[in-house]
Amino acid sequence: MPEAFDSQEPVLTIGLAAERTGVSVPTIRLYEMEGLLIPFRTPSGRRLYSYEDLRRIQCIRHLIHDEGLNLAGVRRLVALLPCWRLKPHNDETDGPMAECTAIQQEKEPCWIIRRREGKRTDEECRRCEVYRNALSCTQEMKTLYRELATCKPQDLQPGQQSGTSE
DNA sequence: ATTCTGACA
DNA sequence: TGTCAGTA
Questions:
Q1: pLDDT tens for each residue of A65-111
Q2: Distance, Å, A14 CA → C8 C1'
Q3: Does a structural domain hold residue A163?
Q4: Contact status, residue A21 vs residue A55, Cβ threshold 8 Å
Q5: For the domain that residue A24 is a member of, what is the CATH number?
Q6: C1’ B2 / CA A161, Å
Q7: Is residue A94 part of a domain?
Q8: Is the CB of A64 under 7 A from strand C?
Q9: Does residue A131 lie within any of the structural domains?
């Protein structure tokens, strides 16, 4: 069995990604325009996808085809996810938590906010557990989103985590 | 042959 | 979502 390949390595062209996921090429590009995907790029500009990206594309497809969401719905869903729920804030690399625009606004996922702030952070975000898990469609994430969708904004603020079983 | 961006049905 | 144009 093949175990020597990295599920995060960019190895598939958009055509192959479309073939494997059942999502058309134009639609995959659309997902990217919506900020849901951050594909790799070859020096010439061609998009490349990893096997993990394939899972991500399938997750989005699932939300749209099976959960009845549209693209706007998917965006709102991921926007509900505070980055600190998946990854401890790091003052060293992220700066003071109080000054983090991603945590302050939370109207969009952190990777989209960071990009708009002009930072070339795609590489880091692609590796970040927040980006990688937000659209993983695991049972854990489904449970988390269900919780986030029903509680109030105040309940989402960091620092209120009565740190017990987390 | 395949992909890219932008525009449009 | 799909498709067409004009490239690379």
A1: 999 999 999 999 999 988 889 998 888 888 888 888 888 877 889 99
A2: 16
A3: no
A4: no
A5: 1.10.1660.10
A6: 50
A7: yes
A8: yes
A9: yes
From the CA of A161, how many Å to the C1' of B4? 46
Q: Which parts of chain A have pLDDT scores under 50?
A: 161-166
Does pTM surpass 0.90?
no
In which domain, by residue range, is A111 found? 12-155
Are A64 and A71 a contacting pair, CB within 8 Å? Answer: yes
CA angle A102, A131, A80 (to 5 degrees): 55
β-bridge partners, A47: A41
CB atoms within 10 A of CB A131: 24
Q: For residue A47, give both structure tokens.
A: 């998009």
> How many domains would you assign to chain A?
1
Please tell me what DSSP assigns to residue A154: G
